[in-house]
Amino acid sequence: MSPKSLTPETMPVYQLTDKLVFPPPEHADPDGLLAVGGDLSVQRLLLAYRMGLFPWYDKDMPILWWSPDPRLMLKPKDLCVSKRLERTIKQGPFKITLDQAFEDVIRACAQIKRPHQNGTWIVDEMVDAYCCLHREGYAHSVESWQDGELVGGLYGVALGRAFFGESMFTRVSDASKVAFVHLTRFLESWNFSLIDCQVTTRHLSSFGARELSRAEFLKLLKAALRYKTRRGKWEFAKEEERGQKTDKKTKIKENRQ
Q1: What is the rounded CA–CA span in Å between residue 91 and residue 27?
Q2: Each residue of 144-199: pLDDT tens digit?
Q3: CATH class of this structure's domain 72-254
Q4: Where in the chain is the domain with CATH 3.30.70.3550?
Q5: Rounded Cα gap, residues 11 and 35, in angstroms
Q6: What mean pLDDT is reported for the chain?
Q7: Model pLDDT, residue 222
Q8: What are the b/e assignments for 107-146, b being 16+ CB within 10 Å?
Q9: Under DSSP, is residue 140 helix (H, G, I), strand (E, B) or coil?
Q10: Which residues does residue 95 pair with via DSSP β-bridges, in sequence order?
Q11: Residue 7 has what pLDDT?
């Protein structure tokens, strides 16, 4: 997907300044567009996610900030995995790791060709911004490896008990799906309450994600943000890195900064 071809002259939205504020998400237009401008500093991005907003724009466009209504969200405990995919996971064709190749993952997400999409919304400015978030311990990647090659993965932002999924890619069938299932089960073991999937896709809906109204989503997000953020580099238990299946109580190690 890519943002709509909008120009500042046609957008009935808020123009941001250098001041670190956003208008209320409820003021977004019917498509979910709330504001234009600002920057992608760590502070502004963290404020945006805490308010249920995210940046999404194309090259040669200003930064656009969105709050869709409805919002696609997955509760980790509601994860649905098909029998076929579960068999693939049991076979262990991929080594799954966390936070081992963040920049490689986000650049792969930017470069992968997708149906009905010209170019990418993950522009260089976005890559730099999220790499900064990763270095600060807020953004995380999940990698799928096969024969030493990165063949799939995803990245997102974690605050409190909320994980905000941003993008995924795959070069080998099921590589990103297996990474997503591992991540979701791990987040459940950490008592995460939601994975924000942003906009509706059949792919994510097949995993059990469902649409919520903006008001419902913001209420759940507020509750999730009451908990301390697990900031820093994340690590899966060694048996998970080998791709072996474990139960949902899998031990997860965390290095705090």
Answers
A1: 48
A2: 999 999 999 999 999 999 999 999 999 999 999 999 999 999 999 999 999 999 99
A3: alpha beta
A4: 8-68
A5: 9
A6: 89
A7: 98
A8: bbbbebeeeeeeebbbbeebbebbbebbeebbbbbbbbbe
A9: strand
A10: 145
A11: 45
Neighbours of 60 (CB within 10 A): 7
Domain with CATH 3.40.630.70 in the chain: 72-254
Give the number of C-alpha atoms closer than 13 A to the C-alpha of residue 250, restricted to the C-beta side: 23
Contact 176, 154 (CB under 8 A): yes
Beta strand pairing call for 54-55 and 64-66: antiparallel
- Residue 8, pLDDT score: 45
**Per-residue pLDDT, 257:** 34
- Give buried/exposed letters for 74-104 (b at 16+ CB in 10 A, else e): bbbeebebeeebeebbeeebbbbbbbbbbee
* Number of Cβ within a 10 Å radius of residue 253: 11
Give the contacts of 177 (CB within 8 A, at least 6 positions apart): 85, 152, 170
Please name every residue paired with 35 in a beta bridge, in sequence order, or none if there are none.
14, 65
Query: Which of 20, 72, 75 shows the shortest CA–CA distance to 46?
Result: 20
CATH 1.20.1250.10 fits 8-68, yes or no: no
Spell out the residues 6+ positions from residue 103 whose beta carbon is closer than 8 angstroms to its own. 127, 131, 134
Q: Give the whole-angstrom CA distance, residue 4 versus residue 185.
A: 34
